Amino acid sequence: MASARVLMLGDVVGESGIRAIDAGLADLVRSHRADFVIVNAENAADGFGITPSIAEHLWDIGISVITTGNHIWQRSEIRDYLPSHPTLLRPANYPDGAPGTGSCVVRSGDLAVAVINLQGRVRLPNIDCPFRKAERLVKEAGEKTKSIIIDFHADDTEEKEALAAFLDGTVSAVAGTHTHVQTADARISENGTAFITDIGMTGPVSSVIGFDPAIARERMVTQMPLKMEVSGEKAAIRAVAFEIDSNGGRCTSIDTIEFVPKL
Predict the structure, then answer these.
(1) Rounded to an integer, what is the distance from CA 79 to the centroid of its chain?
(2) Which terminus of the chain has a lower count of CB atoms within 10 Å, N or C?
């Protein structure tokens, strides 16, 4: 049975998260024998957005596909950059006219994996329906490969679980991002679709979702709109590793990862 091994990293937060990837990615790729690496990097530029230089650095160190979310538009320079870089994804369910693409297919030897990036609508901007968009994109991707992975960048657990149920048996995995906290519900359905509510964050360990705890505390206590700043503490990589039967697209294993590399 031919299989594709995919390593998928949760939201990279700031320079701390990038340093953790620089220090630890090679070890994770080796230990999990990963054929493909996907990383959500919508928070990589000082906690908000991504820049072309960060994207190029991530590709240079071995990232196959970069996914994003609601902060993709934070840096204006990324808008003109997206259309010519098809493995830097923005959520596919933004309305027509938004620059860039929300899905791609990447190959490694005889293996191919489709990656689809979607954004939820509960407590997030009310963009196009992720369910209907997913249904169409999964059908299109299925003509190229049976190994299909969804990054669902969403805030609400119900919405994430509902999408996994909606796509059950038609995709290899639905992995949630956005909340920055790794959940303990990784599982594979009887129909071979893996699911986790949230992969978690690749970023500072001693932080509040990646940001300076003192500022976060003051924001909560005073309700003042203080600017969040990325914590500079040691960082951890949170990720999941999938093994997928590339002939039928069924996920055969899912493992959660928390790894603190030596910086």
Answers:
(1) 19
(2) N
Closest of 152, 240, 116, 250 to residue 193, by C-alpha = 250
Handedness of CA 171, 177, 178, 184 (dihedral sign): positive
d(CA 125, CA 119): 9
Entry pTM: 0.94
Catalytic residue among 32, 71, 153, 180: 71
Tens digit of pLDDT for each residue in 153-163? 999 999 999 99
Report d(CA 163, CA 111) in Å as an integer: 26
Domains and CATH numbers, the chain: 3-203+232-259 (3.60.21.10)
Q: How confident is the model at residue 1 (pLDDT cuts 50, 70, 90)?
A: low
CA atoms of 155 and 98, how far apart (whole Å): 22
| Diameter of the chain measured on Cα atoms | 58
Active site includes 85? no
d(C-alpha 29, C-alpha 86), whole Å: 23
**φ/ψ of residue 242, rounded to 5:** -110, 145
Cα dihedral 240, 197, 96, 71 in deg (nearest 10): -80
Outline where DSSP puts E strands in 76-143: 103-108, 111-119
Per-residue model confidence (pLDDT) at position 116: 98
